[in-house]
Structures are given as structure tokens and as C-alpha cells.
Design a protein that fits this description.
alpha/beta
Amino acid sequence: MSEPNAIIRIENLEKSFITKKNTVTALRDINLTIREGEIFGIIGMSGAGKSTLVRCINYLERPTKGKVFFNGLDMSKLSRRELEKTRQSIGMIFQQFNLLMQRTTIGNICFPLEIAGVPKEEARKRAYELLELVGLKEKDKAYPSELSGGQKQRVAIARALANNPKVLLCDEATSALDPKTTRSILALLKDINARMGITIVVITHEMRVIEEICTSVAIIDDSRIAETGRVDSIFTRPQTAAARKLVFPDGENQAKYIGSRCCRIVFEGNSSFEPVVANMILACHAPVNIMFADTKDIDGKAFGQIVVQLPEDTLTANKMIAYLQEQGLTAEEVQL
């Protein structure tokens, strides 16, 4: 049964590739719903299957098993012509921009419109509108070789918007950019989503990208969906090892803490680490060791986390956890 406002629905998807020696399964039992108008993140480590999944969404790769529904249409049942027409409603931007080097910025943006059969003058008018939208109106006659990485990606975004798509797929769109440029591109995507209502799917291996722009996220681990939900919920209460690895900073270096009782405290809004921890120490008459702490901005809301090593005394440790929970904080015992 389809969910209300679902623009992309994936059911029991599997994708395998046959090589000379064996069969490699890139995706297993993928079930996912992306709702109209949201910014949805798909995150995983290199080789997890993210890029294969995004190519299955627009049927550049045909799934081995399962179904992909776009705007209520079963992609597997579309004719070649119907599929090409449907793909016009799915814009795509890439890590390496994929601009035509022999064309100006206006020429690049006009290209998909030419393929769609849009009259030349109408196409140029639309291209100039989009170039203004992405803040590059003065670069209309520039060639890709004359643009910075961030400017190239802005042109690529304008090109992806040319046919008024319902969905924008971003496959590692900021991985080749420096942090400052990444923030500006993410801000642009967020503005496009707010102004135009376009659903955006962000494929990335960087948790900071998910935290900055996405409302919901699916975590891919070993070719499967490990966990899915709202970004703030997964940050607050990660349920799987794959999610905890992304949420905890320097997760790969935490093995030395195995065996210690630790408590993770999550702060929302304007909560501060120091008074809560200090008051807990005073109330329970025992010190704690701070393992790490950080703050994040998730969908415009401030979040923080701190992990403390609890005292060896069981009663005191339990008292501390109870104290934190009484303050209305998310406080859970974790194994690091």
C-alpha cells in the first residue's frame, strides 16, 4: 500500500551484477519511501551501494528484483519512450559536474531543453532565469574551464532544473568541493527546496551534509538499509551499529573504551553541557570522565552530545542516569 504524498517508493529492491568470475550483489532487500517536498539523505561508506541505488531510482540501472514507483508509476512497466519522458521529471547532479566543456553556461543549461524539443528562444529564456536563480547571471558566456568548482556545480544545478523536475537527485554533489563552497551549495539546494517545493535526494558519505540539509535519512550498510528515520531522531537515539558509527565522532577510535560503563547525553536547543554535568556531579557526589562532546546544527536546530564514563559503583552510576532523565534529557547507557 502506498503512503500519502510518496513521490518515490522502493519495494524489495535487489541489484546484482554478473562478472566473469561470480555474481556481485550491490543492493539487497531495499524498502524506502521518500515523500514529496522533503530533503531525504542516503548515507553510507564507500562501496555500500549508494550510487547504485540512485541509478536504480531513475532506472539508469534496472533492478534485478523488486520495484521502483515514481509519482505512482511502476517504472518497470514503462515503455522506453515513457521512461525517457518520466526521467525528465528527475533531475540529477554529480560529483564531477559533467558539464559539456565546449558549451557556455547558457549552452549547458539549454542542452536538456533542446533534447526535450523546447524552442530555442524559450529555452534561452528559461536558462537565463535559472542562471539568475543560482547566482551566476554574469557568467552566461563563460565556459566550464573558466569557472570554479562551486560555480560549475551551480551551473549543473541550473541544468538539472531546466525541465522543471519533481525530484532532484544529488550523487555526492559536494564531495569535490571545499567546506565553505559545500555550505553555499547546500544552502542553495535548501533554498530551491523551500521556494520550488522540489523533492531532493542527497547521496553522500558525509554525516555533516545530512545534518545540514536533510530532514530524513536512510543509512546503507553492507548493501542493505540499516536504519531510516528523521535525522534528529537518529542523532538522538541511533539504533544500529552503522548509525552509531556515523553519529559518534571518531567512532573508529573508540575501541579503547570497551568494557567501561558510559552514558550518552543529548542536548537540544539552548541546553548547555557544563551546568547539567556539573549539577549531576554535585547531586551524586562523584566525578565522571568526559570521553567526547560535540555540537551540531540539524535542520536549523541546535543539538549537542556528550559521552561520560560513569563511576564504577553501580548505585552511583544508576543514580546519575536517573538524575539526567529527570532533567528531561535523553540519557542512555552506551557501549563504546
